[in-house]
């Protein structure tokens, strides 16, 4: 194998650039030519590929987002789209591909491998930390710290005005960010899709807090909570209790960007090198994960078959310390 490609796909995450940099430099170190593919699978189908050398990835380790751009690509769900992608790879002599993204991107990689024999290695790039096969995904640590800082800032205002805030953080299917940021920010309650939300119990938490002398409170809500988004929950609380005057803040896409933390930079750097080593050793259909402090290779399918959920011990921590 002489030529490999790297692309970023699906939702962007801080640290993707660090991963690209590592793939490019490790590839060069191993005597491989590395092609950067723009806009994920869409760029692959369109032939938006260019050779990248070590100098082309200088200075990007500290940048959020992905300098290759990312995209969602409808055509890749169809066999014909994937066949076109395989033709582009063949035209550039590319036999191995590093796909940085979430489990959706991995499904695409698996199909490309099964149908066209392209060697594919996945790197977990998503802020949600919900994919299987790895304890941590690239971008989660940064997003979690961004959400924690938001809680700290809200705390100043909540305290000054004796207010109750509902802060909505990302996580359509996963309450991981809400749980970790909520604990780190010292929030009074954390509402996640994993645990059924009961408005009565939210009201009870607020009332108990007031009875114990809390003038202000912050309740963190994962966007995919079963009782609705933060506005829905604030409305239900207002309708069913004396707490009419609350505030809602939605963090939204602010959580996605920003300079990656040291943890994400180092994780992405290590994983990028491991991906190139795996390709060079003839591995395929695998993802790089981290288990404890060690890098591991796992089948791509583990990403969606064995999704990571937060440890229930964290619920206890949140409940005891939020009181
Ligand atoms: P993520 O990788 O962050 O989970 P998506 O689920 O949006 O993001 O997937 C990113 C892209 O991967 C999709 O736009 C599509 O091009 C490709 N993809 C996702 N699922 C499949 C699938 N089952 N088959 C082929 N390609 C897929």
Structural account:
With 323 residues, the protein is of the alpha/beta class. The protein has two domains: 3-139 and 260-305, 3-Layer(aba) Sandwich (Rossmann fold); 141-257, Rossmann fold (3-Layer(aba) Sandwich), CATH 3.40.50. It has eleven helices and eleven strands. It has helices at residues 16-29, 40-46, 79-91, 103-116, 140-161, 176-184, 199-211, 230-240, 262-280, 302-305, 313-321, and strands at residues 3-8, 33-37, 49-52, 94-101, 119-124, 164-169, 189-191, 217-222, 246-250, 286-291, 294-299. Strand 1 (3-8), helix 1 and strand 2 (33-37) form a beta-alpha-beta unit. Helix 7 crosses helix 8. The longest helix has 22 residues, at 140-161. The structure holds adenosine-5'-diphosphate. The site of adenosine-5'-diphosphate has 17 residues, from helix 4.
Low-confidence stretches: none
* Major β-sheet strand ordering: 3-2-1-4-5-10-11
Provide the gyration radius in Å.
22 Å
Global geometry: elongated
> CATH class of the largest domain, please?
Alpha Beta
Strand content: 15-25%
Helix content: 40-55%
From the coordinates shown, what is the CATH architecture of the largest domain? 3-Layer(aba) Sandwich
Query: In angstroms, what separates the terminal alpha carbons?
Result: 58 Å
Sequence of secondary-structure elements: EHEHEHEHEHEHEHEHEHEEHH
Helix count, DSSP H or I runs of 4 or more residues: 11
